[in-house]
Amino acid sequence: MLIEPPPQLTERPGKLGGDQTEEKAQCDSTTPNTIITDSIDLHARLLYVCIINAKSNTLVHNKKINDDPDKLLALIAPYQANIVVAAECMHCWYWVSDLCLAQDIEFIFGHALYMKAIHGGKAKNDKIDSYKIAKLVRGGNFPLAYRYPQRMRATRDLLRRRTRLVREGAQMKAHVGNTLSQYNKPAHNLNLRYVEARAQLRNVFADPSVQLSIDLDLNVVHFLNHELGKVERYLEK
Hints:
Strand content: 5-15%
Oligomer: single chain
């Protein structure tokens, strides 16, 4: 049995019944110059997608797909002419950005640290996050992050890795100095990047356990210097 409400109740702003909502949303999605927001709660192997139109009507929500470019393109194909794809910045955004660039789709992504609105509610899950990202974009509150140029990403990542390893080496050198202080040994005043300097610390302690701890530091420094040298020569080409 179908009971229809009085005509005046069906025209309430923002309230459309089941079929009307879908029909109206589909109409809005195909209207020229209508901006469609496709928000993605991005994970390493999964995507949670929410698509809303310029009037905040939900076209797609709680759609979970794996990290397959073809599936993502198939999902947004009906709205591709007017769509803006948005995602939170995390380590696996490269392929989404490159896919959008290849398909001439506008792509933006938000600074993860500043997207506090997503974490402000009591309830938080992937479905809610994808919808909130869409609403942030729609409301003009999406905190944009810098999209690093595709041709320079690999070099940037290599430099970041180099920085991490340089810090690891510094920690090894600091531990050598701290251990000498711990056992009241004179400061070494050596530049441990050089083989000759490291050789002078190979027989400082009579206790084999302490000396082995120092040798571990020196061996790691030796290995890091060798590998970082290769990286630096590559970058200077």
